[in-house]
Specification:
Four copies of one chain form a homotetramer. Chain A contains six helices and 17 strands. Chain A is of the alpha/beta class and about 325 residues long. The first copy, chain A, has a single domain, classed as 2,3-Dihydroxybiphenyl 1,2-Dioxygenase, domain 1. Chain A has a nine-stranded mixed sheet with strand order 14-15-16-13-9-12-11-10-17. In chain A, strands 2-3-4-1-5-8-7-6 form an eight-stranded mixed sheet, covered by helices on one side. The termini of chain A are far apart. At the A-D interface, α4 of A face α4 of D.
């Protein structure tokens, strides 16, 4: 029997829009401590980018009365691929409709995941064109580096909380053509966590179970740095600047990512990570399934997962 | 006008077959100094793999009267994608035909590039199944690590010499669906080097001009390690073990890869490299073109490209 | 008033003798996982060294019915300095007397610290002379590297448990001329930990309070590696080889050392550490005092100190 | 025969005073690219320090019509030790006399080396007392970090050119109690380079032969960073900021230091270096002697020593 072909319609995660109720402090964190650069402003939003993100922005930071995720955007591989995905999502019945686009990209199609997080997909994008003072020494880099804060290279992935991770596992492959690379299945059969990718990165989004009754909550957004040592330096830098370090640096057992988690001033969790040379190259990768017993061993080198990692999300839940 | 969609028929570089006229010494190098593991033998060939290569082998080392490349294999994304590529290559007129496969994969279709290097494409593969003593501590890794030599994680890319790099630039996108990510164009318009990828890696093959009149020659094969520091350690290890270090560690200007080049005992050049978190995520990446003047600046931090890098290939050319 | 001159009579920590009730497994750990080399055997003891230790041995591993510290040796700066230290120790009244020396050094003078640990001081030593197959590529290194296990460079320091750390703080400066570089003073005034050095290293021995009623117990011995990344790699390697990782990698707040703690098969704790470029250069360094409140913040980046770190010592105490 | 005891009168290198004929640009380099902090100004001089230097300053940058070394200061271990050194130097006949001190230290005794470089030794020093906004998160660190430029930790060593390196080898052990750790002896018996230390660092000053007829010239000053990776990052940062990178990053064969050399805007050479965990602990260390043949192999991993390294010094020589 001929296998169904893998879907490459969605090229990559494009951007995340975060809400903050401490906009000035959050902006200071993202620019001066995480090391992003502002590429534009509109309304209540500031558009930010890491030095090697090729698009205009990868983080849209929007002032709000609350925190958490406003929406997430994925870029499709072509206009045709975008149309195919829209058709697929409309069939799934969770479509919202087209937007006129944003400062950093053209028209986008919005939809909801089963936990009510808002996604959008688009093709037309605005490439970052560095002004003279932002031109890099090496022309194969999107922008010069400034050496501010963690000095992250590019947006890597994000993580959402959901009531029913199994519903997400059914949804995302159909909506985005995502593949499941790793998952945690509890002894009772429930799916506690699931990692998805649309390309060769080992994951661009992860979902874990929300231990509260809330829906649509955000767990973290992650920017990639080039070396594990850069994360150790980032830890020193966050310490020196009074940022709340939640856990790490350490190495995840799941996906083997070297990680560091901090909270930006409004409470949104931010990760700095390095995956080494690990990629998912197999077009027919079989999901790795972790059991409850295996996960109880903690992280790769034995660090126990910190309690707040299971409870803290944004916006805060009414009853934890 | 609707753009042509990017081609994702070929999933990734699968393996390289190298010839050696010093088979025992070469094998000792690849196992004990580069850190590969033997996964099988057949005829004059030993099959080798890095610890996180998911396939049975990524290097086939074949005893011969000479050195250089025997063939290179790419794995397609699906059986259908394989058929599409075969049809495209047959149209290009450089097809050789089907083989029955090898120890590590099923039937493959062979063809020649314009410089007479032999390629093959295949879909059916033999996944590496670790025996009990090779099982990794973390189940999302193909095989345990042993800490031997450079301890490389996975096959990364290879580099070939060619008389006419422009002919290759015309050929590979049509044959494999490769995209050009970077290139060197001399003042006289000639293409001195060209880097191609079929996926999110910034390149899986590079071609540079052969300064001799020889055809079909091999420049190097590269395995990836997780961190730049691992390459510094590899340099120490090669020094301690009397391996000829040609150049590096340093950072390429082109592709920004951190590199180290050595010769294995038979003279084939081997690279250990780290690309940091750099990936080509844009589905419509525009090739970066380096001028002759720019390349004269040397590598990223100013290291002048060593003369042998332009002349040494395998097999040795009759007249340099 | 003219200050008393600093004492430089003792040059450095020389070696540690550890007892093991699993001699074969312990030896396998120290050679194949920590990466030491055997330089000799005598009686029930195996003599081990790191690749850049200049003396014959820095670890003497002795088969026994128990575990823990047999003795520790410091090398003096000159024969005259040795005589001055012997005179000082005899005045302190804890001297045991002269030994004829050992495989790795000449006659040594033994004494007890206030918690009954046995120390010795010596001047005459046996420099390691590498046989042909152990000669390094760079002649300014004591021995070639082999790339086994953690591949540690040199002995760094050791840590002992004591009932009364204040008594140690009074004793060591008088006995060895040690200086206190850092200390933990509890709210009740008790000294919970004290770090000492005889040279520019920030510490060569640390004492922490034994939470049991036992005396003469051993907490850990530490070997230094060149880079923090090497400790991350060591963690991967220990994980792959089933070694019990107690805590780390992380950065100590005290002394800022980057650390990883494991247990060798007999239960003795072993640390792999990197101090970066941190040295104590000031001849009149003032001890840094940490309060109970400060220590409750955990390690540098917030890791809570693991409970076993306060309780596990060797030999095990009858009542914890 | 009883050996002469090693001399520990001089504790460590204290500071270097450099001249610059581009004072604003040089200051910008040292503060924003090397990452030093200004701790004071007086006359034509700016006083600078790395974040973990415990003294008020380690670099005095003085505006001048020329470049090169004004003087270098070493701190003694005690007032008594200072007196002993003054007596020894006066016996050597190269003393200049006492100064009243400087912003960062008390009275100092000045003298000349045989090549006419000016040294001073002192004991009374001004410890750096961080104002509130410069207090570090970890109290065992002299000052907070800022993440500017290379972010160097502390002054490491300096390097001078001399007509007669043998004369220096005779002089420094008598003047400062320095020990020779490594040296280069040419086939004709001439000393081409000599590395000295007064403590456990493998060297605090190196002299190499001046290939011109000039005297009193300066080769470079070096600040230490904690990890080799930090030097790779510094190379990226210098590249991005248009600083002239002379050579590196690479590993010296002599002393095994990982290095990177750049020129500050006025032409004084500055090195960023990491020695790993390598220390000279032996009180009776025997100098390592490199032959002309050995040095022709280049640096540790084969990098050829760049021509300017043998010719460029400050101030520039009239005839090279």
């Amino acid at each position: 029997m001929t296998p169904i072909e893998p879907c490459y319609d969605v090229a990559h995660l494009g951007h995340v829009e975060l809400l903050t109720n401490k906009p000035e402090q959050s902006l200071d964190f993202f620019v001066n401590l995480l090391g992003l650069t502002e590429s534009g402003r509109a309304g209540d939003s500031v558009y930010l980018r890491a030095f090697d993100d090729y698009e205009f922005h990868t983080l849209k930071l929007t002032a709000s009365h609350t925190t958490g995720l406003a929406h997430v955007g994925y870029r499709c591989a072509s206009p045709q691929a975008l149309q195919r995905r829209v058709a697929a999502i409309e069939k799934l019945g969770t479509g919202i409709g087209w937007t006129e686009g944003d400062l950093g990209h053209g028209s986008a199609y919005r939809f909801r995941d089963p936990d009510n997080h808002i996604f959008e997909i688009y093709y037309d994008t605005k490439r970052y064109e560095p002004p003279a003072n932002e031109r890099p020494a090496l022309k194969n880099q999107a922008q010069r580096t400034h050496g501010r804060g963690a000095g992250v290279r590019r947006l890597d992935h994000f993580n959402l909380l959901a009531q029913d991770v199994s519903a997400i596992r059914d949804f995302l492959p159909n909506a985005l053509g995502s593949r499941v690379t790793e998952q945690i299945v509890l002894d009772n059969g429930a799916l506690a966590g699931c990692w998805f990718t649309v390309n060769n990165k080992s994951y661009d989004v992860a979902y874990t179970r929300d231990s509260t009754a809330a829906r649509g909550r955000f767990h973290h957004v992650t920017y990639a740095v080039d070396q594990r040592e850069h994360i150790l330096q980032a830890a020193d830098m966050f310490l020196e600047n009074g940022v709340h370090i939640e856990t790490g640096p350490h190495k995840h057992a799941v996906q083997q990512t070297f990680f560091l988690y901090v909270y930006e001033p409004a409470g949104n969790r931010v990760e700095v990570a390095n995956a080494g040379a690990r990629l998912i190259l197999a077009p027919d990768w079989q999901p790795v399934t972790w059991t409850e017993t295996e996960r109880k061993k903690g992280q790769a080198w034995g660090l126990k997962t910190i309690e707040s990692f299971h409870t803290h999300g944004t916006p805060p839940a009414d009853h934890g």
